[in-house]
Amino acid sequence: MRESIGLFYKPNTFFMLYFLFLLPVYLYSNPFFFEVPPPQTDQGDFFKKIEESIHKSHILENINNLFEEEKKEFSLSELELLDLKNHLFKRLLRGVNQHLFSQNQKAELVKIHKGSSCCIVTTVDGSTNRNPELISQMIKNLDALGFNGYLYYRIAGFPNPTGKEIQYASIPYSFKIFLMLEAYKIGFKEILWVDSRLMPIKGIEPIFDVIKKHHAFLVKDKIMMRANFLSRALVTLTTLTGVNPLNHYRIATPVFGLDFSFSTNLEVLKKYYECCDTGYPFLSVFPEEHVLSSIFARYQKTFPFIDSLTSSKFKNLWLYDEDISLEESLKKAQKKQFFFFGLGNKSQFQLSELQLEKKIHKTRNSLFS
Fold first, then answer.
1. Is 56 exposed, middle or buried (0-12, 13-18, 19+ CB in 10 A)?
2. CB contact at 8 A, 229 and 290
3. Which of 43, 61, 194, 288 has the fewest CB atoms within 10 Å distance of its CB?
């Protein structure tokens, strides 16, 4: 965003109070609302109808109206409004533009080596933006690393563990928690979300050790910034969580873990569903991260955050392909012993060329020889 936006776009006490006064009026008028079609015997047909219903909804109109509201209340120029939209719009429409239907649609639980109570979850949507082969590559890497546990994944579709989550399909990035909850319903306690582009290249047992000991694996990022929120999100989050998000750090969720047997995490889930019911808390550039961060801020004395800048054990968590040289990026990640290597938009389609699992075997053999 342009610097001018950042300069004036700061908390406005009157504006916050104005929205708090209106809160009961709009609290349940979810801007991401769409008509959920009746269940279908064929899951493919059902998700096709979900997509159609989302596209026929007023979500796009609702989001545009919220930007106009922001423009009016802060006297934004057309150029400043455009800056704001460029900053937020694509992320807010992630749920609207996702592809729930795919010919390759499936949900599967994969046992790796001996298995355990530890489960990794991930997903790839039905579009061509993500290579579904990322899933099989992740399994190969985990196998090469000697991981004992399970991988639960989805290709397309939408996690619906209690039957009500499908109504939140249009809410951007809401699915992470729901997929984790599906794994919990299957019978797992320690569950780790890993973005599908993040390939494990180092043993991840220390991460699960943190989940078992501290009931969560929460990676501390930067302090939450006003310019990353629409006003409705900030006010609703403050009201629902009882904390001001701007006073707290954001949790980065490319890798994010929870112990679902811990009672406080069930309270976190309950509050998360409240945020989904209203929809407004997700109106930000980091939708699910801002929501989860605000909720966990209520329990900051219960859950220690992992600070990768100061932690000796988790100093290097993930490194994404730098689009310079794929081999060079990977060698850097392995040399510095990152836990995960993030594949880029191009390199995710070069898996056969990369042969990541063979490089892991080679590295492990050299370490133990």
1. exposed
2. yes
3. 61
pLDDT tens readout for residues 268-295: 999 999 999 999 999 999 999 999 999 9
Closest CA to 189 of 121, 256, 118, 111: 118
Determine the pLDDT at residue 362: 59
Across the beta sheet with 249-259, the strand order is 106-112, 149-155, 118-124, 190-194, 249-259, 216-223
Within the chain, where are the H helices? 3-8, 13-26, 43-56, 59-74, 78-92, 94-97, 133-144, 175-186, 205-214, 231-241, 263-278, 287-296, 326-335, 351-354, 356-368
How far apart are the C-alpha atoms of 128 and 47, rounded to whole Å? 17
Q: How far apart are CA 119 and CA 123, in angstroms?
A: 13
Domain ranges within the chain, ordered by starting residue:
1-312, 318-368
At residue 77, the 3 state secondary structure works out as coil
pTM of the model: 0.90
What pLDDT sits at residue 41? 83
Rounded distance between C-alpha atoms, residue 231 and residue 78, angstroms = 18
